[in-house]
Amino acid sequence: MVRTFNINGDRLLQSIAELAAIGSLPQGGVRRIAYTPEDIQGRNLVKQWMQDAGMSLRIDPAGNIIGVYAGKMPQLPVLATGSHIDTVPSGGRYDGTLGVLAGLEVVRTLRDKNLQFNHSLEVIVFTDEESSTIGSKGMSGNLVRDANYYRRPDGSDIQTCLKRVGGNWDEIEIAKRDEKAIAAFVELHVEQGPVLESMQKEIGIIEGIVGQRRFKILVEGSANHAGTTPMSMRRDALVAASRVVLAVNAIGNTPGQQVATVGQFQVYPNAANVVPGNVEMSLDLRDLSSRHIDRLLQQLRLYLEEIAIATATKIQILPRLHLEPALTEPHIQQAIARSCEKRNFTYTYLPSRASHDAQEMASITDMGMIFVPSSGGISHAETEHTSPEECVRGANILLDTLWQLDRYYK
Description:
Elements: H1 9-20, H2 37-52, E1 56-59, E2 65-69, E3 78-83, H3 97-112, E4 121-125, H4 134-140, H5 158-164, E5 182-190, H6 195-199, E6 203-209, E7 211-220, E8 224-225, H7 237-252, E9 259-261, E10 265-268, E11 274-275, E12 278-287, H8 290-311, E13 314-323, E14 326-327, H9 330-343, E15 347-352, H10 357-361, E16 366-372, H11 388-408
Parallel strand pairs: 3-4, 3-5, 5-16, 6-15
Antiparallel strand pairs: 1-2, 2-4, 6-14, 6-16, 7-12, 7-13, 8-11, 9-12, 10-12
Helix pairs in contact: 1-3, 3-11, 7-8, 9-11
């Protein structure tokens, strides 16, 4: 049964506006990069709000802020929600932030009504989602145990960075949560894409977070004089690479929900009067099914062999990243759907093609995600926008979903 009451929408929106003022940019966006003074100021504000809402508070060695609203039966595994408040250099005010502050608003609403779940409820602010996901990786136990791997672009070491936010690299293994400690994790997030808006749906129920494979593709031809080398005698790496880009686009457009992208491209020697001798490019391939990704890669490798023969070039494909898909739990999807139906909100099912902290949490607990629309599908930009009504709508669905899950888990 779905018990329906509403969060305080005005309070949620005010909190979003107050947090957005920290690191605000001239065009309305936010720059609050992990570990910077702005990030620390934002974290301190959220911690104060958590304490004001009657939550106990701790920071784990990965720097995650964990606010706990006690349940009637604290011996039960906790329910958890949350996201992140760090941003990209020119970000918006909703990415990550909405999930944290909606979770906080669920707690505030319960406290206003003098209510408790049976389970304690955790609201988590994960550390550095936008760069390393070290917070959720620390909590899931999926860290790379090499401090140099997490060195920041500005050269800062991870030991210093974590210390700034209350974490401790030397004890980071302690951040890993026992798989029986959390009953379920549900993350509310802006879609960061155009699907909900294009379908005119109010809520997205996430089927899973796609797996990602990234590669470097190297094309080796032969550099030569652009004026004196006959066309029939050229081993032009750029011609071959152009065919590779079209092949990637072709597999991306085969039946299925996959996406395939060449986003980086370097030509050598990159001179107007030289036949290109070498090309380096990236490949990003994403889908909810690892088997489907494997099939697409097999097809691409056949294309690459054909292109290499036709252009007299050598083509290599080198792995750079491998992330397995994280599927959401069917009963959490059903709880979200019931919540939408109770409130007469339109909804659809879709995958998340962007990574989230929930992807790491899925390795230690049941996971679900709720999306609300992003205007124009824009995110990671100052013009990112989700309407006040959509923010409040998503927070109410989060409240209803957590209420149901509190009854589901014993």
